[in-house]
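INFO  loader      accepted 1 record
INFO  loader      residues=370
INFO  predictor   begin
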Amino acid sequence: MISLPSFKLPSGFSSFSLPNFGKGKGVVGLDIGSSRIKVAEIKAIKGQYELTNIAQIDLLPDTIVDGQIIDGNHVSDCISRIFSEQKILGQQIATSLSGNAVIVKKIHLPMMGLEELRDQINWEAQQHIPFDIQDVNLDYHVLEGDAESEMMDVLLVACKKDMVSQLTQVIAQAGKTTSIVDVDSFALQNAYEINYAPRPDQTVVLLNIGASVTNINIVRGASSIFTRDVSMGGNQYTDALQKKFNLTFEDAELLKRGTIPTECTATPEEAQSVLQSVTEMLAGEIQRTLDFFHQQCPNGDKILGMLVAGGGSKVTNLVEYLAERFQIYVEPFDPFRNLNVNPQKFDEQYLREFAPDMAVAVGLALRSDG
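INFO  predictor   done
INFO  writer      dumping tokens
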């Protein structure tokens, strides 16, 4: 089991912070995925965190395709509805992006002061970012320096401005203000730091399997050391089941999670065979990511385990397969593990069932706009 001593405050960085609206104020975490919107609200009291609200709502199919919001009115309506029905009063939003809109690079630079780095970072970014530098929002974070070699590692993050604008516009249309736009992988990492309090030498894989994108973030302690987004996720399972057994989208979703729909003639064994074929493709992408990571860090980090989040993490037998394939400890990500949760307000079974889905939203809600 991944070990978990003392509680600690977050040390992750928030990328693409827009102008602040009152330093240190809490924000509502809003995770707008390809198939569902998730919201989390958390109150910070004297270094402790209390869950005050969570909710989610399904989007219509093809509302968001390849990260592009096709039907902004529907997304805005869903945001307004979820805030209204759940009586969420917060107006400041932390949200996030992933996939093709985001580039994350770890670059190796000569040791320099923060002011010099600030002056030079745009030039450095042009060498590593495959977009026009004028078309992206840029952020960076110094990871570590080596006094002996006089070099330092810097995490460089860039996101297309048009994607940020598209996201903030649908939120504004719902009457809310976006104060932070983050990256899914780092929001998940933020939830990990709070809930698992990792040791500085502890290296794990954080896997977030969304509907259309899987985020892979390898973290050592509280620092991200390698990230990659893979263009596959839960939709691939659903599509494969639909084609194989001629199912509706809704019935394929049920079958994906182990429930045989009334109109489905497939046996559990036949369904599992289809799911297994997609899982093997996903595991192959994870393997390629780990292989590349080990090539980049030949002397390095032994991976202790893997925490799996996102709606796609609930595919039947996925966690067990990954544990057997990679011979490491694998478990569903629990974003409520170290939060104060009122059992009279939140149903324990609901929290347990939807915990992996809510991980990014919780990580965003743990940010502050300062």
